[in-house]
Amino acid sequence: MSENYPTIYQKARKRSCLSQEQAADALHVSLKTIKAWEYGERTPSNADVMYMCEAYGTPWLALDHLRQTADMLQVLPGGITLQELPTAAITLYNRVMAFANKYRRTEQLLEIAEDGTIDAGERELYDQIVADLDGIISAALQIKFAEGIKKDRPTGGSVRQSGPQSPANDCKIIIPDPRENASPTFGGKEDGV
After folding, report:
1. Contact at 8 Å (CB) between 28 and 17?
2. Residues paired with residue 84 on neighbouring β-strands, in sequence order
3. Is the CA virtual torsion 106, 111, 114, 117 positive or negative?
4. Which listed CATH number (1.10.3720.10, 1.10.260.40, 1.20.120.1460, 3.50.50.60) goes with 8-73?
């Protein structure tokens, strides 16, 4: 966790450029609840995190929340990292192809499963197969939470920024000064003339 953010929940909110008050309104919770989540006094429920992901536009928060809350259950495989979409897609393809072709894991798994039990002689190979499957699951999750996923084109004349995104906490709003008109002068008098 970055030292700039006490929790993943604050990091996600700041990425969305929402104040704590705006986040509380969007999530239909109190400001006190937002502060408790962001300073680690309470852990939000899975449903609350789902709403945060939607309101903040930060799907990766779901993965980080699961890592934090379900780590003892060992539900998620290790090795899940946030990557750009092309890298994540290549990683998934390589893991699937290695499983299917190079290691013949599909056939090996079917041979082990044929009698419905895993005996002592099959245990080591079975554990290797499960580890390979964990690699595929990790790669698939990297696709789901990939950075730079293409979005639908905006409608109604809105413009979506392309190129590098602003830093996580850069939520500056530029308010133009009406006294400083940026319009050029065309064929008219020059200033001061």
Report:
1. no
2. 147
3. negative
4. 1.10.260.40
Residue 66: both structure tokens together: 């699961």
Residue ranges of the chain with pLDDT lower than 50? 1-2, 151-169, 175, 183, 186, 191-193
Q: Is the pTM for the entire model greater than 0.70? A: no
C-alpha dist (Å) from residue 98 to 9, 85, 102, 108, 122: 37, 20, 5, 13, 20
pLDDT of residue 115: 92
Structural contact between residues 168 and 14, judged by C-beta atoms closer than 8 angstroms: yes
Cα–Cα separations (whole angstroms), residue 6 to 11, 13, 30, 78, 128 = 8, 12, 19, 23, 38
CB 147 within 8 A of CB 82: yes
